[in-house]
Amino acid sequence: MSISVAGRVVLITGAAMGMGRLYAERAVREGAAAVVLWDLNAEALADTAAALRELGAAAVHPYTVDVASLPEITDTAAQVIREAGVPDILINNAGIVRGKYFWEHTPAADIDAVMQINTLAPMQITRAFLPGMIERRTPARILNVASASGTLSVPKMSVYTASKWAVIGWSDSLRLELNESGNGHVCVTTLIPSYIKTGMFEGARGPLLTPLMEPEYVVDKAWEALLAGKARLQLPWTVALGSALRNVLPQPAWDVVAGRVFKVYQSMDHFTGRKPAASTDETAPKETTQA
Q1: Mean pLDDT over each residue of the chain, to the nearest integer
Q2: Which listed residue (101, 160, 217, 265) is catalytic?
Q3: If you classify domain 9-266 with CATH, what class do you get?
Q4: Stated pTM of the model
Q5: What is the DSSP string of the chain?
Q6: Long-range contacts: 26-31, Cβ < 8 Å, 24+?
Q7: Beta-bridge partners for 9
Q8: Picking from 88-97, 139-148, 270-279, which range would have the lowest pLDDT averaged per residue?
Q9: Residue 160 annotated to the active site
Q10: What are 203-241's pLDDT values in tens digits?
């Protein structure tokens, strides 16, 4: 059953820029009662909040928060509940990427940061709000942004890939648990996109028949799936195809198909990423985005 955003509270992480901001703009245009923005970049966050108010937002609540920190998540979630209420719609959009061989990752700035922001943060943020969403007994929605690399192994993206595999498994398990426990009014959607033109994967090349997607297109499709309570959205269609082939082909055959035919294994060969900046919607050590 699809729901309307009108009159509801929407919370978005990684909301200051990129797709996070697009989700926020969409919420305002559709009449959200309040739009709650989480991001580490205070300056960009203030700019986005001001733009949303000019767009006609009923209420905007920006919070500067590092989603890699559990204490900050806990404290800010409590503040959100006091000031805006329990979110009706939660979009776990924040994430970072490291494009290098595994042995080139540093333990803290790379491995810990990717796992904390991409995997643990969506879990902890959802855990902070989910009891209230369950107790309220009104339709609620959660969107967890994963990645196509969470379904297929990709060289020079090992930690990022691991983080997104975990998100997919957790997100879909949560969906099943809510349904099984009689709390199906809270629907969980897992977004599994290939590369998106946000700058996060600057230099990456899409596999065969998988062009880099426009952010607006992905947001439109994800928004539609979220409100409808759809379990999973894979974009574009080749993501589902690749996942299916990976599951049926023997490993040597799949390596040939992925490496020589679809060029999945070469997609990060020319990766540069966005130049470092203090943003929570891009790719510096504390920056976050989608995909």
Answers
A1: 91
A2: 160
A3: alpha beta
A4: 0.91
A5: -----TT-EEEEES-SSHHHHHHHHHHHHTT-SEEEEEES-HHHHHHHHHHHHHHT-S-EEEEE--TT-HHHHHHHHHHHHHHT-S-SEEEE-------S-GGGS-IIIIIIHHHIIIIIHHHHHHHHHHHHHHHH-S-EEEEEE--GGGTS--TT-HHHHHHHHHHHHHHHHHHHHHHHTT-TTEEEEEEEE--BTTSTTTT----TT-PPBPHHHHHHHHHHHHHHT-SEEEESHHHHHHHHHHHHS-HHHHHHIIIIIS-GGGTTTT---PPP-S-SSSSSTT-----
A6: 26/219, 26/223, 27/89, 28/52, 28/55, 28/56, 28/57, 29/55, 30/4, 30/5, 30/6, 31/4, 31/5, 31/6, 31/7, 31/58
A7: 34
A8: 270-279
A9: yes
A10: 777 787 788 899 999 999 999 999 999 999 999 999 999
Q: Identify residue 150 by its one-letter amino acid code.
A: G
The structure tokens listed for 156 are: 């020079």
